[in-house]
Specification:
By secondary structure, this protein is mainly α. It has one domain. The chain contains five helices and two strands, in the order ααββααα. A two-stranded antiparallel ribbon has the order 1-2. Strand 1 and strand 2 form a beta hairpin. It is globular. The chain starts with a helix and ends in a 14-residue tail after the last helix.
Length: 143
């Protein structure tokens, strides 16, 4: 057979793992950036950073979800669902009819921060467990 394996179509040049890792990297960067000031308006997302933080973390979880076993998924969902419920029932900031927003409710933000940090830690621990994070120094390739 003439041509190499790419030309014949035996092997795809597209590497989905590389794109997945790039998406994970960008999400982690967004999560970290949004945490710098949770109260700030995020121009890119057109939302407040506390919402960007939560939404990005949920998207990260969805990106790595397929690698998690049932117990890991349940662990993450046990942390995500109460945060989502809390945010819906007790908004940190509400949009008024005139298009303006209420002041940040500092106590709600404090509660949100405590629980979302637990959720982030769990998702990232499992992400790392499944090799979907930066290699550790102990790994053959190092950092």
């Amino acid at each position: 057979m003439e041509g190499d394996i790419f030309e014949r179509g035996d092997v795809s040049k597209f590497n989905p793992a590389m794109h997945k890792m790039n998406r994970i990297h960008l999400l982690c960067q967004t999560i970290n950036d949004s945490k710098l000031n949770l109260e700030a308006w995020n121009m890119e997302w057109n939302d407040f950073n506390f919402n960007v933080y939560f939404k990005s973390l949920v998207i990260l979880y969805q990106e790595v979800f397929s690698k998690f076993n049932e117990t890991e998924r349940e662990d993450c969902e046990k942390l995500r669902k109460p945060i989502e419920h809390f945010m819906n029932k007790y908004p940190i900031k509400e949009k008024l009819n005139n298009g303006k927003y209420t002041p940040i409710d500092k106590e709600r933000l404090r509660i949100f921060k405590k629980y979302i940090e637990d959720y982030e830690e769990k998702v990232k621990d499992y992400q790392d467990l499944h090799g979907l994070d930066t290699p550790n120094m102990e790994d053959d390739e190092g950092l």
